[in-house]
Automatic annotation (TrEMBL):
Subcellular location: Membrane
Coiled-coil annotated residue ranges, if any: none
Domain GtrA/DPMS transmembrane, first and last residues per copy: 14-150
Stretches that traverse the bilayer: 12-33, 53-75, 87-107, 127-144
Membrane topology annotation: Multi-pass membrane protein
Keywords: Membrane, Transmembrane, Transmembrane helix
Pfam family, one: GtrA_DPMS_TM
Name of this chain's protein: GtrA family protein
Source organism: Chryseobacterium gilvum
Chief localization: membrane
Domain of life: Bacteria
Length: 152
């Protein structure tokens, strides 16, 4: 019983940490995707890849914030040293970043074509695509980080 409650608490904290990291990632994506095209004219469409640098930089911001939130609030230290733990975390995050970029391209190119008006805010196709990509990848992240990096 105690183990089930601890697991639910951990999942809840993972969702909160992930949500905060997603806010960092989405906010930085909005900032980068608004300002980088003014400097790099190919940022909006680089050989068919939409907002590549904005995606990479915002994902990096999200990964770093998620790492610190994960070690502070979500997971207990595993059997690995801090350095090895960080390297594993970054390796998993690198793969997650690639998956996120692929999902973003699929959503942006084929699924979301119009803005979504939420009355108080309008979501552009690139923002909707980014949010959906984050949600898909977060499920994989929890499983791998819990089992491989933080052992348990």
């Amino acid at each position: 019983m105690k183990e089930a409650l601890l697991r639910q608490k951990q999942v809840l904290f993972f969702i909160i940490a992930g949500g905060l990291s997603a806010v960092v990632e989405i906010g930085s994506f909005k900032m980068f995707s608004t300002h980088l095209p003014q400097i790099l004219y190919r940022e909006q469409n680089f050989h068919g890849i939409h907002y590549p640098l904005s995606n990479i930089l915002s994902t990096l911001c999200g990964i770093i914030s998620n790492y610190f939130l994960s070690i502070w609030f979500v997971f207990e230290r595993g059997k690995h040293s801090k350095r090895k733990e960080f390297l594993y975390f970054m390796a998993v995050s690198f793969v997650s970043t690639l998956l996120s970029l692929v999902f973003f391209q699929i959503f942006y190119s084929f699924v979301f074509k119009d803005n979504i008006d939420l009355i108080f805010y309008t979501l552009s196709p690139e923002m909707i695509s980014k949010i959906c990509a984050i949600l898909l990848v977060s499920i994989l992240n929890y499983s791998v980080k819990k089992k491989v990096i933080f052992n348990g």
